[in-house]
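Is it possible to get an amino acid sequence alongside its tokenized fold?
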Amino acid sequence: MSNEKNNLKYNVVIVGSGFSGIVAAGILADYDLSILLLDENIHLGGQLLRKIPVELGDYSSYRPEYIKRIGFRFVESIKNKKITIMNRACLVGVYPDHRLMIESERKEVLSVSYDVLLFATGARERFLPFKGWNLPGVYSTGLVQVLMKSSGVLPAREMLIAGSGLFLFSVGYEFLKNKGKALAILEQTGMMDKAKMLPQLFHQFSKFSEGGKFLAKIYLSGVPVKYRRKIVEARGKGGNGALEEVVVGKTDASGKLLVGTEKIYKTNALAVGYGFVPNIEGPQSAGCHLEFSDRKGGWTVKVNEKLETSVENILAAGEITGVGGALKSINEGKIAAFSILHKFEKITGDDYSRQLKKLTNERRRHLAFMDLFNSLYRIPPGALLDIPDDTVVCRCEDITMGDIKKGIDMGFTTSRGLKTALRVSMGNCQGRTCGPVVFDLLSLLGKQEPGAIGPFHARPPLKPVSIDALAHAARAPYL
């Protein structure tokens, strides 16, 4: 590998090609800047814009909703612009001297330097462990959507959908549209709780109209929608332990199970998800200040109104500043782009101030929706305390709820302390699955404020790197 190929230089590097990333890239590309847009996925547009390939026949009749149509237009708009796009590229680490280490297509490791770095790394699903959640046939709602949208595959002909958040209804809608049969959609929050969102109707009309379309399809298909329900246990009795039935129960307002209300659903497939948490590991490893807020979705990157982080020439936009949906991400992609243009003196101070004022006013409305949305759909304390001691919480390291309780009782009451004592979050997923719920348990059982606990530490490699890629990187600096 030549040194030239192994040491790439760009004015702007954007990590993440979701809404924020592609919007920012599209604006910046019009101002004679060298731009690298990188993402782990094959397609541009992040998780929301996964698209079914045309060659998949009947499934290619997929027609995206309003927000997704906007997103696909953004994707199309940047394809003919002067932007270096690197798909299937994983951020390995952030290093001094404005340098990144990137694994490309699991084949090679590249050293990339930048003048300005924009993190737009989006969010991932949040989970609430229950007995049997690691059985074959138990899927995340996100995986179900990926299988349908990216591969045209139904994971099962019949499925139960459960958890918390509006995403359940989106998955249910697409599952039904693709000829699947949904046994029921089970929401942990109460139906009347949704009324709190009505004041946001005027400013978030597209979200509500899209949700109305989802619900109409679900109700007209005869799918029961039940509120204040939770998964108690998933059971598999066959030789391979595959899912055969799911125990569901009613809950009180705190999320605690009402004993005696249990019901059994016979099914071989369960899709479950509890909303989203920001992917902060990249900014965290770069030294950016973080802050915790339930109303933002957990640990987020702290930014000012220009979306600048605490580290000079590093900005953050989209779900990593607070989980608030596609419109917020589009807005912040624009703010980040104009802030970067101002840094490079590509626009005048007056133009920048005018754009920033307009976009900041718009952002306040999105932040108001974000606050309400995340406070409504947070996992309640009773649901966390209901996790049985023999339930595996950290699946990579096979650590149970009982292990976590013992660790906290022994005085390991910080993220780093519990990680050292139990190896929790030290497996392949690096805490991306168990980390949020373990943090909530530390706060709840240890009776501590989030700031005293601290997030789980992030350090290179941020994700597993292939041996083959490392073998080709012997001369790469900073590895």
About this structure: Residues 3-124+277-374 form a domain with the FAD/NAD(P)-binding domain fold (CATH 3.50.50.60). Residues 52-62 have pLDDT under 50 and may be disordered.
